From TrEMBL:
Phylogenetic placement of the source organism: Bacteria, Bacillati, Bacillota, Bacilli, Bacillales
Keyword Nucleus annotated: no
CDD domains: NAT_SF
Keywords: Transferase
Domain called N-acetyltransferase: residue spans: 100-262
Protein name: GNAT family N-acetyltransferase
Gene Ontology MF, one: acyltransferase activity, transferring groups other than amino-acyl groups
Lineage top rank: taxon: Bacteria
Database matches in PROSITE patterns: GNAT (PS51186)
Amino acid sequence: MNMKIEKKYIPLANYFSATTNPTITLQFTEIEKIMGQSLPNVAYLSYSWWKKTKAPAKHYLAWTAAGYAVKHVEPKRYVVFVRIEPTNDKDNTKTNENILLIRPAGHGDANSLSNMQKKIEGESDFFLYGHGERLLSTQKTRKQIIEWNQSGHSLILLAILNGQHVGYLMIEGYKAHRASHRASLRIGVQNNSQHKGIGSLLLKKAEAWAAAQSISRLEVSVLETNSPALTFLQKNGYESEGIRRKALMIQHNAYDEVYLAKISIN
């Protein structure tokens, strides 16, 4: 990463670095979702802001460092980026592939995250909260993000696919010293974005972050009927440690939860 890039544009730089697509079209709203922050007003008003490639401006490094240039700007709507530097990829037939970015949530992601949580929970019968049951406000979610980021033991990761927030993973740790080595996980991916490796990358990023925080035990509970999740976790080294009997009541039927954990040696 070029250290000259302004901090707020680093996620955007990571996004461009993750692809070799010859053309990338992004809505202004998608760019802001990737960044987790709003674009400056001048970006909405001035075509020349996108065309700047000289100091003292630095925002352009987010795409030029990855070999892209701005081809066209539709004010307040979208920007078209084109690749101007050749790649070393021998398979030139691989074009317009999905671009997946995983990054920590910031306070600017609060509205999108709360809406995504409610959407994902509404798509499945495997979560604690049912469709329309969770009362999540942008303000409450923003407060949670800020507090977790400041805690050092908890984190929310966002999965951004082609400029859209499609999944999350929450790592909730403990302040108490005796339990500071462990944390619980909650993961969700939208139905239309599953089977694309998003869950695996979220888990990989979460485990790397946990290791850096000296968290050696990761815990997760899964509904007994959620076979895909159980298989996914077991393939990633999570072992069943027990059953919480009749943990959830869904449509007047009782279901057990399976407790799983993964222990690593730091």
